[in-house]
Amino acid sequence: MHEVADLSPRRRVGSGAMHEVRRELRPVWPLRLPPGGMDGVLRRRGGVRERLLHVDGCPAVVRAAQPSQGRLVVGGWSRRRDVAAEAVERMARALGAEDDLSAFWERFRFDPLIGPSVRRAPWLRPMRRPEPFEALAWGICEQLVEYERAAAIQRRIVRRHGPRCPDTGLRDVPAPGTVAGLAPAALQAMDLSAGRALALVKAAREVASGRVDLHAADPERGWRRLRAIPGIGSWTTDVLALHGQGRFDVLPAGDLAYRKLVAALQAGGGDPRARVEEAEVRGFFAPYAGWAGLAGVHALRATGRWAAAAGAPVRPLAA
Predict the structure, then answer these.
(1) What is the DSSP letter of 243?
(2) Could you tell me if residue 253 is inside a domain?
(3) 231 and which of 31, 94, 199, 276 could share a cystine (Cβ 3.0–4.6 Å)?
């Protein structure tokens, strides 16, 4: 008999009466909790992952734990019960509680390239954010820079502009409306380039105004509108799709990790500096149609390039 992890906040979460919503789930496919995030938003405390989330501007603290294999407990606390419930749903979705990867397993578990990883790590998923705007904003920050530098920029943005829960010390990523109101120079002061700072502000304005709905059932229209912004291309919207909207069929093919991976596989090793173009990466992963994003993280793991991915703009692995 396994005890359910204690998810209750040690202190109050804001003023006034608090509502608690807790769900115990049986994920339909194996999963593992992600490590704490380098942006300082997701915090690890023992076996519990916790973070601050805002729903319609109202804060909620959400916590998740795995008391045993096949069980996931997610709790949310907020002044509004509906906000606590929505925060729980978003966290559970981001962790992969609703993912049914059986079709991927059946199709690729004996694949020559990714089969060994699929069999050994069926829980593997790309990291996913509970709020799609986070993936979009961080994708812009991560363009063409080393991940460690991008993470430092993200931490500065969170500390300077992200809302903070005074009772827990947790911080959230600033909302689209907050970023939309920033001067690009304010983001440049945090080491973001002028072009990326302007692109981030313009993207935030599109989302805050409702012209781009990141939660839309059909997100392609939003992707096209975002790509019309100078400085936002297919790589950024692919990152949004995979890491923010749960699209396992989308691969950030322009990512340096994949460009180097495909170059190495096609050449049988050779020059570690070699890389191919984005179109060649998409062609290489065409046999994984419908699952290219998930196949990509398994390909990195299967070829021993898991650690190498840490030097690429995005960390595509969940744990």
Answers:
(1) I
(2) no
(3) 199
